[in-house]
Amino acid sequence: MDIPLVITRIIHVLSGAFWVGAAIYLALILEPRVRSIGPQLEGQLLNHTSKLNSAWITGAAVVTMLSGFALISLTPGRNMSQLGSSAWGNMILAGLILSLAAFFISGGAGAFSAKLRRGLDAGNVSSDDLDRYRRNLSLLSYLNAVIVTVAVATMAAARFA
Amino acid sequence: MDAEIAILRLLHIVPGVVLVGSAIFLAWVLQPALKVTGPPHAGALMSNMVKPMVILLHSSASLTIIFGVIMAFRVRDPLFDFLWSTNWGTMIWVGALLAVLGYAVGTTGGFTSKKMMDLGASLQGPPTPEQGAEIARLQARAMLLTKIASVLVTIAVITMALAQHV
Questions:
Q1: B45-71 pLDDT, tens per residue?
Q2: Which residue of B has its CA nearest to A31?
Q3: With a cut of 0.90, is the ipTM above it?
Q4: b/e per residue A122-131 (b: at least 16 CB within 10 A)
Q5: Number of domains in chain A
Q6: Of A126, B80, B97, B146, which is the most exposed, with the fewest CB atoms less than 10 Å away?
C-alpha cells in the first residue's frame, strides 16, 4: 500500500466531504431557518455561529484544494501536465476551476454574513439594506452549494472519462 | 466511459458527501455553537430546523446506501464471493456496516432531540430544577449520539475509500 497516497486521499476526501456537506447544510437548512426566527435572535445566533462557520469552511476548502494538488502528483500515472490535456485532466481541471469559484463565492457569502451581523448589532442599518444583505447571502450560499456539488460530481466521474 | 458505473458512482458519492459533511458540521460545529448560545435562541432554532434537517439527512443516507449496494453488485460479480474472500470485500462490508450503524445511532440521537424539544414545548413558564436537569441530560445524550454517528460515518468513508488500495 502506498501510504502517502492513501493518507493524502483520506485527507482530501474528508475535508472535501466536510466542505460540501457544510455548504449544503448552511444554504438549505441553517440560513433560511435562522432568518425565519426574527431579527433579534438572528443577530445573536449569527454572532455565535458565523465566524465559526467561516473559519471551519474556509479551512476545509484550503485543505481540500492543497491535498487535491498533492493527490494529482502522488497518483501513479497522473501529473499536473495532464490538466487540460487529457479527458481525465479536463474533468479534474473543470472540478478545480469550479472549486476555486465556489471558494470565492463562499468568501462573498461570508462578507455579506458579516455585514448582516454588524448591521443587526449596530441597529442603525435600514431594513432595506438588511434585506439586501440577506438576499445576497442566500443567493451566494445557494450558488456555492450548487457549484461545490457539481465540482464533486466532476471529479468523482473523472476516472471514467 | 462506463456510463452506468459512472452514474451509480455519482448517485452514491454525492449524497454520501452531503451526509458525512452535514453530520460532521452538525456534531462538531453547529451543536457546540448552539450550546454556547443557550436558551431560548438555540431551542427556537433547533425546533425550526428539525424537519428540513431530517429530510436532508434521511434522504441522503437512503440514497447513499441504496446506490452503494447497487454499485457493489455491478462492479463485482458475484458480489458475495468477493465480499468474504478479498481484502476489497472486507473493507466494503466493514464500511457498509459502520455506515448503517452510524445512521442508526444518528437516528437515535434525532429521537432524543425530539424528546427534549417536546419537553421544552410542554413547559408553562420556566422549568423546574427536575425538568431543567432532564432537558440538560437529553441534550447531552443527543449531542453525544450525534458525535458518535459522525465518527462512525467518517470511518465508514475512510474504510470504503481505502478499499481500492488494499
A1: 777 888 888 899 999 999 999 999 998
A2: B49
A3: no
A4: eeebeeeebe
A5: 1
A6: A126
